[in-house]
Every structure is written in C-alpha cells, then in structure tokens.
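Project standup — Tuesday

K.O.: blocked on the structure for the chain from last sprint. Re-posting the sequence here as requested.
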Amino acid sequence: MNPHKPENQIDYIELPASDIAGTKQFYSAAFGWKFEDYGPNYTSFQDGRLAGGFWTEIPAPSRGLLLVIYASDLGAAQARVKGAGGKIVKDTFSFPGGYRFHFADPNGNELAVWSESA
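H.V.: unblocked you, prediction finished:
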C-alpha cells in the first residue's frame, strides 16, 4: 500500500483516441494538460490533479462515461475548446450547483466543463 495515494479514489482514467498527436494538441491548447508518450498508440496526461491516458486500442468515440472538467471561467473555457478545434455539442445550461457545457474532442469523445457561474 502506498501511503501517498488516496485509498479508494479514482487515480487514473483512460480514453479512446483515433489520433494521438491531434488529441495532445487539442487538450494542451484547451486546458494546458501535459503529456508523455509511451509508444505510438498511447500517451499519458497530467492535468495537475488527475492523470490518465489516451490510446488507440479501443474505438472512439466513447459515450459510456461523462468526464467533467472544472473551470472558474466557463466562457473562457468554451472559447479555448472551440479555438483548439473542439465542437460544442450542448450549449451552456444550468444544473443544481452551477452551469456547464458539453463538447466533443477531436476523437468524438464527449466531455463537459462546469463552473459555479455562467
């Protein structure tokens, strides 16, 4: 057991990708994520809080799980997503606790970004 790891909490996620280079470019531009490649079909990312990876071994897009990213400025986050080549698939809407929008990354994976205010 690693005493530096939170027990029973999500530690790593993996998402499908059809284009590793395009995926890295998109998430770097939109959210500032850092990447490390492990061969041509896998790259891992660090977002500053959670780590994960993108790989080409499973078909994209994945719609079985919705990953939600927090941003203090929702409008700026939406502009970065669009500027990086993402597609807004659900415009900003309110929900109990805040506001969010959904986007598709270059692989077709649907994710969301939320904030306390629009």
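K.O.: great, moving the ticket to review. Strands lie at 12-16, 34-37, 42-46, 51-55, 67-70, 87-95, 98-104, 110-115. Helices lie at 20-31, 74-83.
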